[in-house]
Amino acid sequence: MRAIAVAAVCILTAIVAPTGVKASVIASTFDSDTEGWTGYGDFTDLAWAGGMGNPEGSLYAKDAALGPTWGFEAPGKFSGDLSDMYGGTLSYDIYVSHGGDWGAPDITLAGESLTVYWHDASPGSTPRQWVHYTVDLTESGGWKKGDTAAPPPTQAEMQNLLTNVQYMRIRAEYSGHIDHGYLDNVVMTPEPGALLLLAFGGLGLVRRRRK
Q1: Is 71 within 8 Å of 179 (Cβ atoms)?
Q2: Helices 2-16 and 192-210, interaxial angle, to 10°?
Q3: Is 20's pLDDT higher than 50?
Q4: Predicted structure pTM score
């Protein structure tokens, strides 16, 4: 059902979008495979988990016990020119096996000349259950230019970063145990107003064509 809902938004956008307009939802729901995702840090056994998810179907990996914090790294569709995502949101569901924390960033969004970090997730406080997060893709969305004491990016810096995203990472390790984790329903959505304007503009274009 979740894939149908995401696909419906994407198809509607494609149908009504005027030529040259790029705004659309980017999503990984892991209904049948890993969708090109990989990992970073000391992960191992990355795989699609058909029997686990929110609902079933998710991305799985576990700790290789080598030291560095591990997590999941997004495929190419979550990189490049994502300027249309400014003002929108990034959301995801995560399940971790063990609780705890040590201050590593939860999301890393790397641009060509600036990397920003989001530190506000806390799945380690609620292990062994699915937790949902939604993050605003703006300078006021909780992003930092370093650790939690670092300043946030400016509006110009955040907008510039989104014009050429190099990679996106989502942390999955929250303890010193040999842990494992699952990721599901990663969705980047443009600003709602942009989608509405896109739809109304496209429908107007369709009406003119019918005349």
Answers
A1: no
A2: 50
A3: no
A4: 0.85
User: Which residue do the tokens 């274009």 mark?
Assistant: 205
Task: Identify the CA nearest to 121 among candidates 94, 145, 140, 139.
Answer: 94
- E-strand ranges in 41-124 read 43-53, 56-63, 71-73, 89-96, 107-110, 115-118
Q: What is the reported pLDDT for 211?
A: 45
φ and ψ at residue 97, rounded to 5 degrees: -80, -25
What is each CA distance from 2 to 7, 128, 168, 179, in whole angstroms? 9, 22, 22, 27
- The label of the residue with tokens 């991305």 reads 59
CA separation for the pair 161, 35 (Å, rounded): 24
Residue by residue, DSSP assigns 107-145 as EEEE-SS-EEEE----GGGS-SS-EEEEEESSTTSSEES
pLDDT-derived band at 16, boundaries 50, 70, 90? very low
C-alpha to C-alpha distance for 27 and 7, rounded to whole angstroms: 9
For the segment 135-190, what is each residue's pLDDT rounded down to a tens digit? 999 999 999 999 999 999 999 999 999 999 999 999 999 998 999 999 999 999 99
What structural domains does the chain harbor? 2-8+22-193 (2.60.120.430)
Pairwise CA distance, residues 207 & 135, whole Å: 36
Biggest CA pair distance of the chain? 66
